[in-house]
Amino acid sequence: MAANANKTANEKLMTEMETVYLHKESREDDTLYVSLNGRTYLIPKNQPVEVPKPVAEIIRSSQKAQAAADAFVEEAQKVMRDSERNPMGV
What is the pTM assigned to this prediction? Predict the structure, then answer.
């Protein structure tokens, strides 16, 4: 019985839609592939698209993770540039 209630709640959540807009970063970068619970979504970029709310949450989470990774790489590159300019740490 609890499994049925949980399944119904999940189905309801998948019917709640949210509009997302993904920026295209290159000519070949036309779509974003998202997979959730065995279902796949190919989300076109450079246009508003309605997706289930959990899919929008995955996209936001992915964007936050990418931003954190980009910041980490940028800081690491800065440290490397600084160490190349001053190899003795003086």
Answer: 0.75
